[in-house]
Amino acid sequence: MPETSIARRILEAARRAGEETLAAERARQAEALRQGSDRIDAAMAARRVAAEKRLRESLQQAVSAFRLAEANRVRTERRKSLDGVVAGAWRKALEPAAYRAWIERTLSDHCRKGDEIVVAGSQRSQFEKDFAPLLAKHGVRLSDERGVFQAGFVAVRPGSGLRLNCSLDKAFAEALRATEIEVGRTLFAS
Hints:
It contains five helices and four strands, in the order H-H-E-H-H-E-E-E-H. It is an alpha+beta fold. It has two domains: 1-93; 96-188, 2-Layer Sandwich (hypothetical protein PF0899 fold), CATH 3.30.2320.30.
């Protein structure tokens, strides 16, 4: 029996050692699992934060792109509207009565007897026919030179080399430059 008691003690000690080893291994595995889970949770949280940041940035870029496109569209539409107003004003300036009055006033203000005027090729016949009495009244004659503008004339003082740009193009551009901002404010007042 003594051997049985010794064997029991050995078995009991082995069982306790096995249970302790098993408990220690379970604790080590539980700690490893907790640490692994914590690392995975931290990595997922970091990825989630990074993904949310990329999403916010992407959304902000999309919003910025939309705003830019919309601002460009609005600017384009405003420019079209302003260009339409300018084109309408140009057409009115070329209406026969208004254009004739402008030509007469400009001849009076800028030309002397003996001056020549250079006109656009497209308007030469109009000056030869419709404005011939005005030219005679002011003592100016048409030059053979053709102008590279749309309307009006360039006054040339023979022998002096003096050329004065009296084109409607120039007068219109100056008037537009002087009033474009005010016209825009009037058209697009909010």
